[in-house]
Amino acid sequence: MRHKTSGCTTCQGDAPLQALSLMGGWSSSAVLELYRALLRAGRHLQYTDRNFYRRAVAREFRRCKTLKTPEEKEEALKRGQFFLSSRLGGLM
After folding, report:
1. Which positions ≥6 away from 91 have C-beta within 8 Å?
2. Cβ atoms within 10 A of the Cβ of 5, count?
3. Pairwise CA distance, residues 84 & 86, whole Å
4. Which of 23, 58, 63, 84 has the fewest Cβ atoms within 10 Å of its own Cβ atom?
5. Phi and psi of 27, rounded to 5°?
6. What is the DSSP letter of 7?
């Protein structure tokens, strides 16, 4: 879903993070929701190339796809949620 205004409250703040935290841990739907939230947040980047950011997010998710144990998957999901909640690590 695309928004025409950059002041959209759905795509900013902690709304995506709150939705993720309600899922209660690692699941394929939680991973997909995090991926979508990171891509949505990347639309508002000002200080880095958006295409580079999208490729980096996709590369990291492909790398994490090979993780085997639930603990590793949970840790990767937490890192992604932290990155999102910290305003993309300071990129925004």
Report:
1. 45, 47, 48, 53
2. 7
3. 5
4. 63
5. -160, 160
6. T
pLDDT at res. 91: 66
User: Is-contact 84 16, C-beta < 8 A?
Assistant: yes
Q: Which amino acid is at 14?
A: D
On the CB side of 26, CA atoms within 13 Å amount to: 16
Strands (E), the chain: none
Full-model pTM: 0.68
H helices then E strands: how many in the chain?
A: 4, 0
Residue labelled with tokens 């603990």: 71
Q: What amino acid occupies position 13?
A: G
CA terminus-to-terminus distance, the chain? 21
Question: Residue 51 — pLDDT band, cuts 50, 70, 90?
Answer: very high
